[in-house]
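To illustrate the input format used throughout this study, we show a single complete record. The first block contains the structure-token representation of the backbone; no residue identities are included at this stage. The design step must infer an amino acid for every position from geometry alone.
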């Protein structure tokens, strides 16, 4: 622990509000988890009672929030050194580390147990493994030790559609595994575009992100490689039963745009990027969020069309 972390641990009276505790659970990440889990749940070839579906989604959301709280608890020293994270609940002094740990552990137990009750054991086991992987393995060990942290750690963020599918069916199939692959392969270009742009902050925080360890040039190559693999995996889903016309059209267009933006990041050197204030990297990062939303929204549209009797 650094002196800075020790100061965050110093006993003091909590000044947290409900909003601070909500922010502790990373609501943006939580919303993405809910959305992709819902897509996996509704795309599955099974009739799921709405009450069970809603309760299961709530458990998955709480589990995601628990992971976020554990992540912020452990990374409070890193967050305090980076401009984009200094106002988070712990570095800002609004929430104590002990409070964050208590919330993370408590919500983890509640979410897993309740998902087993509402859905099935397989879904609960997957949720428990995801929390342990992200809140433990990735946060406490992987992130500070290897530039491949984002690649390996991306598995945690990619599992929600698989959990959603297992809630509905009680089993795993090719389709949710392809959804997993989409998010897993999306994660590196998404975060490395940000890391290229924020490389100085990651360097100062001593986080071994790929641009810091391998350099911008190698990172740009990896962004391009993973973007192509992402396109291939998302287009592979077209040949399954869960994809219909909405997904097919969306996948073709969004992957063409994603690969084009990745190409613009790949082909420029660091001097040009700095001169243009990382405009290409910012565009790729911004579109990557839109990309994932459109891809899974298209799956939901096709699921609705099937429910309405359209083939």
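Output of the design step:
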């Amino acid at each position: 622990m650094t002196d800075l972390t020790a100061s965050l641990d110093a006993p003091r009276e909590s000044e947290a509000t409900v909003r601070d505790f909500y922010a502790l659970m990373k609501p943006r990440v939580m919303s993405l988890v809910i959305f992709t889990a819902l897509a996996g749940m509704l795309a599955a070839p099974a009739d799921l009672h709405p009450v069970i579906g809603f309760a299961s989604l709530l458990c998955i959301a709480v589990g995601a929030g628990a992971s976020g709280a554990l992540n912020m608890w452990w990374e409070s020293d890193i967050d305090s050194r980076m401009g984009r994270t200094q106002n988070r609940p712990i570095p800002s002094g609004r929430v104590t580390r002990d409070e964050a740990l208590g919330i993370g552990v408590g919500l983890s137990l509640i979410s897993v147990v309740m998902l087993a009750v509402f859905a099935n054991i397989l879904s609960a086991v997957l949720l428990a493994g995801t929390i342990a992987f992200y809140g433990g393995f990735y946060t406490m060990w992987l992130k500070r030790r290897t530039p491949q942290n984002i690649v390996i750690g991306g598995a945690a963020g990619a599992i929600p559609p698989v959990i959603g599918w297992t809630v509905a069916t009680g089993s795993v199939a090719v389709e949710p595994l392809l959804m997993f692959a989409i998010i897993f392969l999306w994660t590196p270009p998404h975060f490395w575009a940000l890391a290229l742009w924020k490389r100085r902050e990651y360097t100062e925080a001593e986080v071994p992100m790929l641009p810091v360890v391998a350099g911008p040039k190698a990172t740009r190559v990896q962004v391009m490689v993973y973007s192509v693999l992402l396109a291939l995996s998302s287009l592979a889903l077209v040949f399954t039963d869960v994809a219909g016309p909405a997904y097919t059209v969306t996948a073709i267009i969004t992957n063409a745009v994603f690969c084009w933006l990745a190409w613009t990041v790949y082909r420029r050197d660091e001097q040009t990027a700095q001169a243009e204030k990382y405009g290409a990297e910012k565009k790729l990062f911004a579109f990557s969020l839109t990309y994932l939303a459109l891809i899974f929204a298209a799956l939901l549209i096709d699921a609705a069309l099937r429910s309405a009797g359209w083939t």
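Structural context for interpreting the output: The chain has a mean pLDDT of 90. The chain has two domains: 16-171, 173-311.
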